[in-house]
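Exercise: predict the fold of this chain.
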Amino acid sequence: MRARDVMVRAVATTTPETTVEKVARLMINLRISGVPVLDRNGQLAGIVTEGDLLRRAETGTERKRSRWSRWFSANSRLAAEYIKSHARRVEDVMTREVVSVGELASLDEIAQLMETKRIKRVPVVHDGKIVGIVGRADLLQVLASGGVTTADEESDRLIRDQLLAELAGRTSRATSARGHGLVAP
């Protein structure tokens, strides 16, 4: 099986200009844990996840550092943590280096990426534009439905397409023949 076979095609997305509060409401309302971020051209620019919103000043969960740890932490890291916990827009909290796959990525490739990168979802892209998303639950769905068959997928797909084309041809011929009074209804 491939990404295209299990991906969710109706993907909720957001923009870098969206407020953190609005994207949090979107995630809650849709019961999703991550939202791809698209730039003005519809290209994948990042992703914002529950993890990106975990440490927030509004909820009192921002990271607190002891005086000693401040001496040993790089100023750039402290600044980045502050921005992430106080930012108002998605572009300031989103993960910019998004791991994505193409439609033909195998489930094994996707599972390996999730495992090694410690991520819960992988956007599926075509020419830089998002066409779907595969989450851990989508892989579990394959398991729950009996797993992947060992038959050659492309061969199965070709046989299916030929069968559907043949059936469509017979239907259109029969409809045409009925229209000309050649076949009894």
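Check your answer against the key: The mean pLDDT is 79.
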